[in-house]
Amino acid sequence: MATISAYPNSNPDTNFLSPSNQSNLNRESSSEPDPNANPNFHTEPESVPPSLPPPSLLHLSFNQDHGCFAAGTDHGFRIYNCDPFREIFRRDFDRGGGIGVVEMLFRCNILALVGGGPNPQYPPNKVMIWDDHQNRCISELSFRSEVRSVRLRRDRIIVVLEQKIFVYNFVDLKLLNQIETIANPKGLCAVSQGAGSLVLVCPGLQKGQVRVEQFASKSTKFIMAHDSRIACFSLSQDGQLLATSSSKGTLIRIYNTVDGSLLQEVRRGADRAEIYSLAFSSNAQWLAVSSDKGTVHVFSLKINAGSPGTTRSQSASEPVSPHSSLSFIKGVLPKYFSSEWSVAQFRLVEGSQYIVAFGHQKNTVVILGIDGSFYRCQFDPVNGGEMTQLEYHNFLKPEVAF
After folding, report:
1. What per-residue confidence (pLDDT) applies to 191?
2. How many angstroms from the chain centroid is the CA of residue 117?
3. Using an 8 Å Cβ cutoff, are 99 and 76 in contact?
4. What CATH fold (topology level) applies to the domain 3-310+319-394?
């Protein structure tokens, strides 16, 4: 089963592995910073004979600033730049081993890899820390069960198992925390990526519950977000806002992570759907949602990014959240009729898996499909409606020239 995940948008710099602002780890297993390391992947993709069939995708995920994305395949892994779109690196292993999880650390040379597929390159119960300067793994973390997902920060490695989460210090791989969760086969976990303290969100110990760990204040908050099991959630870049959806997939709720208060509720639709990804814009003004219904939705958020407990006032340049025309009698009719609906939509193939993130160009979204599709679209923030497709690629086809 493919693992697909999205990360908060933060840094608009599109220069891959900029040495001025990216941490680079040295060539020793201790993984301490090395200021002299060359912070560049190979800038040209390796050639692939046109006779070879496209690989099968096992994993798709954006990096922490949404400027790149990683693809794990049954042959290895690949790294792509979003804008401009191009393949910038690939590693196909000699044994043809599969990679089921690829987690980037912003744009530096360090990756976290987990084997996957019918012929895994590494054991599925190990996290391999790969340094591409050396073209090898520099350290590993072993567990008693399969690794479901990995999250990276410059200071932490978070490993998600079926019912437990481990938090490690990146420099020396010292275990800092262990968190028990309800059964979590998708490996759901979100971490803040701002320069401030770490905020970690994971499933709680009850159906429909999420757990928020505030590491700076050493506090834990449990939020009963839904009646059904949690299907997807996402944090804003600073960790102050949390968007959640349940297995029903009809409602998305936005919470304040500090006090657990419900700030806003929006409706994706009336029919049950599987939510694949949720993504905040960098200023927390917009929320994007992808599901198996084949439509990506963009919602307008009414929360001040700097003060999530307050509602942003509407101005002439901002859209009014779409409501049912019957909302004036919301106290009489069911809640469905007064729901807040999406401002903009983009139609895709129904039933396929897609993840979404906001692009670095204003009012754009980037959509990735497990079928190898890449879309860049633009939405009208005032009038809404159908998004405009700006770009399309199939990044798995070997004959595509980047």
Report:
1. 94
2. 21
3. yes
4. Methylamine Dehydrogenase; Chain H (2.130.10)
pLDDT of residue 109: 86
| The length of the chain, given as a count of residues | 402
Give Cβ neighbours of residue 314 (< 8 Å, ≥ 6 apart). 320
Taking the C-alpha atoms of residue 38 and residue 319, their distance in angstroms, rounded to an integer, is: 46
**DSSP letter for each residue of 267-322:** E--SS---EEEEEE-TTSSEEEEEETTSEEEEEE--B-SS-TTSBPPP-TTSPPPP
Average the pLDDT over 35-39 and give the result: 34
Distance of CA 198 to the CA centre of its chain: 16
The C-alpha atoms of residue 21 and residue 67 are separated, in whole angstroms, by: 14
C-alpha–C-alpha distance, residues 202 and 240, integer Å:
15
pLDDT recorded at residue 304:
60
Residue type for 297, please? Answer: H
Residue 206 per-residue DSSP state: S
Tell me the chain's radius of gyration from C-alpha atoms: 21
Examine the pLDDT at 309 and tell me if it is beyond 50: yes
CB 139 within 8 A of CB 173: yes
Three-class SS of residue 241? strand
Count of Cβ atoms closer than 10 Å to residue 354 Cβ: 24
Q: What is the C-alpha to C-alpha distance for residues 402 and 398, in angstroms, rounded to an integer?
A: 10
**Integer CA distances (angstroms), 343 to 78, 143, 161, 232, 249, in order:** 34, 44, 36, 21, 18
367's tokens: 């959509």
Distance set, CA 238 to CA 9, 308, 312 (Å): 10, 11, 18
Report the 10 Å Cβ neighbour count for 98.
Answer: 26
Cα–Cα nearest to 186, from 259, 109, 100, 309: 100
Q: Where are the domains of the chain?
A: 3-310+319-394
**Buried-state track 8-18, b at ≥16 Cβ within 10 A, e below 16:** bbbbeeeebbe
Nearest residue to 300 (alpha-carbon basis) of 281, 326, 325: 281
Quick one: pLDDT band at residue 314, thresholds 50, 70, 90? very low
Q: Pinpoint the alpha helices (H) of 104-199.
A: none
Alpha carbons 233 and 202: distance in angstroms, whole number? 9
